Amino acid sequence: MDCKICLGRAKLVKKATVRNAYTAEYYLCANCDFMFVENPSWLEEAYQSPINTTDTGYVMRNMYLSRKTLLLFYILFKKDDHFLDYAAGYGMLVRIMRDYGLNFFWHDPHTQNLFAQGFEHKGEKVKAVTCFEGFEHFSEPIKEMEKMLLYGENLFFSTRLRPAGIVPDESWEYYGLNHGQHISFYSTKTLDFIARKFNLNYETDGNNLHLISKRKLTSGILKIINFLTKIQADLLIRKILKSRTTSDQKILLNQGL
Ligand SMILES: [Zn+2]
Q1: How far, in Å, from the CA of 167 to the mean position of ligand 1?
Q2: How far is ligand 1, taken at its centre, from the CA of residue 194, in Å?
Q3: What is the mean pLDDT of residues 244-250?
Q4: Interacting residues of 20 by C-beta distance below 8 A, sequence separation 6+
């Protein structure tokens, strides 16, 4: 089997039962350490509800990711820059980021925009792209990377790291065997390979946050962001930035939405 990322040789390393009905076959690439499910036949069924119904962490995750995004983007970019949330789902993160004061837009061909209507991305270039809990859903990660990099050359995303060279046992909840939506699993080696493939720099917090960027990155920047989140430095930034909550409402009222 060809690896979907580096085209190296991937070997069957695991089988598991998905959605209590299907047998998933997991392949691991010896070159870039990418692990993936080949041809998952259950995806249509798995996405009947795009945000899986057992995802009780959805709201909390949006809250803490928004705080980290605020800190990172305040440090790296200008306050009037445009940003895009790719695979933005219901639009909760976009709404929160706009409430904080950053100019975020929504993009998601598969999910209804509930919270960020009127702020759909129209295809223009942005300063940075976020993609949270998206990479593990991608069946073609390189194609998705290419799409995101067309919009912006800084990419901040989350996906839980797999320890390098390891095939976790089934107690690893990130397999998502109950819903079957997770089909791609990366280690730092894989993400570093992807960044170098696009001639970009890579930083990680060593857990689930990642930054791929054309910029030269401060070593450990995402660990610094995690620390700043712990001491609630984002509250200070919220005092400095002007929230878009009220001005967005005016925009929407003017549009007759
Ligand atoms: Zn590979």
Answers
A1: 15
A2: 9
A3: 96
A4: 178
Going by DSSP bridges, is the β-strand pair 10-18/82-86 parallel, antiparallel, or unpaired?
A: unpaired
Domain at 57-254, CATH from 2.60.120.10, 3.40.50.150, 3.40.50.970, 3.30.70.2190:
3.40.50.150
Q: How far apart are CA 58 and CA 52, in angstroms?
A: 9
Å from CA of 51 to ligand 1 middle: 28
What is the rounded distance in angstroms from the CA atom of residue 26 to the CA atom of residue 116?
Answer: 36
C-alpha 139 – ligand 1 centre gap (Å): 14
Ligand 1 center to residue 34 CA distance, Å? Answer: 5
Whether the pLDDT of residue 121 is over 70: the answer is yes
- Per-residue pLDDT reduced to its tens digit, 182-217: 999 999 999 999 999 999 999 999 999 999 999 999
The DSSP 8-state label assigned to residue 51 in this structure reads S
**36: CA distance to ligand 1 center in Å?**
10
Instruction: Report angle CA 6, 10, 11 to the nearest 5 degrees.
Output: 170
Residues 129 and 102: their CA atoms lie apart, in Å, by: 13
d(CA 61, CA 55): 10
**How many angstroms does the Cα of residue 85 sit away from the middle of ligand 1?**
27
Q: In sequence order, what DSSP letters do the residues of 107-120 get, joined into one string?
A: E-SSS---S-TT-B
Q: Average pLDDT of 233-250? A: 96
The predicted model gives 113-141 an average pLDDT of 96
Domain boundary assignment for the chain: 57-254
